[in-house]
Here is the input.
Amino acid sequence: MFFKLVSRNSKRNRKENGLFFGALMVSVIVFYIVLSLSHQDVMVFLARMESDAVERLMGIIPVFYGLTLFLLFFLIYYASRFQLERRRHEFGVYLMFGMRRIKLFAMLLAEDLRNSLISLAIGLPVAVLLSELISLITARLVGIGMIGHRFSFSPQAALWTAIGFLSIKFIAFLILSGRISSQTIGALMAWPPAGVKRQMPPVVYAVSMVIGIAGLAAAYVLAVYGDAWYDIRQMGITLALGTAGTWLLFFGMRFVIGLAVRSGKHDRRLHVFHFRQIQETVIQRSGTLAVCSLLMLAALCCFGAGVAISRFYGESEPHVLDYTFDGSINGDTPGQIRQKLTAQQLDVEFLELFEMRVGHIRTAEDIDHAFAMEPLMEALRQRKPSRERDVLLNNLSYATYPYVISQSGYNRLLAAADLPALTLGEKEAAVYMDREFADAKRSEILNDILKTGPKASLDGTEITLTGSVQTTKLVTDRSITLSFALILADEVFDYYTQGDYDVYLNGILAKRESGNGGLMAAISEMNRKLDEAGVPYESYLQNMGRQLFYMVASSYITMYLAIIFLMIANTVIGVQFLMNQQQTGRRYLTLIRLGATHDVLCGSSRRQINWYFGLPIAAAVCSSIFGVYALLTGILSSRSRGSLPEMMIVSFVMILVLCVIEYFYIAAVKRASDRYLLTLMVPEREE
Amino acid sequence: MEPILEIESLKKYYGKSKNQTRALDGITFQVMPGEFLGIMGSSGSGKTTLLNCIATVVWPDAGSIAMNGRQIQKLEGAALAEYRGKEIGYLFQNFELLDNLTGYENIMLPLSLHGVPEQEGKRRLEQLAAYLEVKDVLHKFPAQMSGGQKQRIAAARSLILKPAVILADEPTGALDSKNARTLMEKLLGLNREEQATILMVTHDCNAASYCRRVLFIQDGVIFHELRRNIPDETGQEFYARILQVMAQLGGGSANVL
Here is the structure.
């Protein structure tokens, strides 16, 4: 009998609170996916290239796991409390019939455990499948599909998922059942009074709303103008203003809803009723709504920023070089490296192998005045003031001892990149700046000035700066960047460097696109051969790996957090609405007696759901526009700031996508509400 | 005069053959326009089921109910909602006011439900509020009202659309004797002055003594009927006769008059 009761009750709980049960399963899935991250193809691949960074990321995973447990604990506690509160009367009846408290406790525990195990039994296989799917999709997206996918199940991740999930459920259960079982039978059996919460004068709410809006506006201003990132105090003030503003806004919202109740649209069907319902829930739960709205905001910001950042890292520069061999590592000359390659018959695998010579102005004694370009600086100063101009003026003022690059090597690079070669005279130099220091806007400014052929002084000799700003990477290693360098004709280069320069041997593979996996496979294969031959190298793959790592890490972490935040916020709002609807079920019964049809009731409840979800979503979306902008301006380096408007568009698209997700959530709650209202249409005998 | 409500051989059974409860077992009666009819009976006698059948909250298994000559079992969709809202007004034992709506909003609720412009009901509301003495509490929430005020607000709500019949289910059940008397006097006044047709189910002999006719139901059938001799019979005398029937009702069919 006991087990039958447990089985029936747990089944009823699942049916009546499907939304919460769904959230439990999603938490199992999310737990497993984050814990099994190290088994994902992309991570396995990256671990070979960037083991330090991957290890560091894996080191953060337990922190995320802990944070998720903490957040989900509140969700579970909250939803379980609703569920148990609803059954108070039933518990009172059990005790009344002589059930011992310990048995009641055991029964509730068994019910809870049963539902938890069912969530795990459904959630874990789905999680494993989903994790595999994500692994395959990400691998394909980043082009490492050929590395070979193997089905991976992480028993450790599954174990920790089960442990974490069951622990938070158990702790929440202990606290809640302790509260329930300490009450007297009389208290349990009495229906909780529906009583109207004590209300303050409307002016209090109006003022609270105005202060809330002002607080939010102040937080927006601080965030958008970048003051929030100035120091930790400023950031704290911005966050506090935003949080308090949101809370006060929701607290004061009853004022606006009160106005809506009194508005002139009384003739709309059940207008007053549904606004009074919304007002009641907003009054009783303004704090929870504010927290949910903030969680949604956090989710939107994470999502928007995550996508924008990963897109930024995913945007690669034009790919020209496959390999760079740096002789200085082993003390080998380029000739010796070539010999080693030839000995292993590896030289034939390269379409091209050429030297890139980079050195300093060795003829100069005063390195602080080896180079000057006053006419160019003056032309810059004459230009219309702009942020880009100021950055250039600042950066170029340090270019007094620039690197010099030999023309022949650079021209071969240009040829490989299908770009026109440079022709430089004896008294001419071309300007080289890395893309990080010369984005599209800055290059445009400099090119304008370079067209006029500004003069410059190189170790006392007057030269002309010519051509346009060169930005093609000199070597494969992305971490080597030059803020300013001069490309000189070879003889001039030899003269100024006095034969003291570094030589990098750059290589381009012959069979780039052959084989199954294309370039990636070709480079992987060559890496193996070079490792065997003992030739130190820097390959495109390593650099792409680094880029990929940032992309994957940022998108995984932000997506993960976004999903958690969104799930908690939506489940809390949804469960809260449905529970509240059931608590006020008598009102719907009265409406039915007064002649309301199922359609009329559903229409009213659907409108309530729209408002109930819409209020926190609208507040979150509005704040997220500023939030994402602030995050992007704060996080992104100067190089990527140029593409901020484009990234904002990406973020907007993501916000839209999230709104679509919300739409589906709302639809699910509406369906549940319609089903509940349908059960009310069947009359029950009341005496 | 044509009857406003005709109940013919009404049957409603609950449960399967072996454990079947015959809530209504072939009841037949008529209600005339402007009549104040009471229905009495012990717990489980079927009186609430009867009211629920008329209110279309439950569907009878057999028999017919005709309101103004129209079979209500045949009503569907909008016509059914129209019937529930406009042809009958329901007065509940527990008032069933929506606790998050003010008195005014509660009274106006049927208008809002049936898409009647608010302006049309305003004058009627003012009249009813004045007559039922609830003007002072119109803008209060139910939690701020006394039991009597709540029931009078509920009465105003059931009357706002001028229904053909008011169905009152133990309207004094949750009231003290003073408030019960006030309510019954108001209902009687409405019956006399507005010719409101009232069908009231009650346990309370005192409340039933306000009726012009009382039907006694036992085990799903009409067991007895009392008519008040107006104007000769006083309320108290009618009350005494009702009490007498109720006492006999307690003794079962052996005491049939």
Q: What stands out?
A: DSSP finds 23 helices and ten strands in chain A. The beta strands of chain A are 323-326, 350-359, 371-372, 403-406, 428-432, 455-458, 461-470, 485-488, 501-509, 538-539.
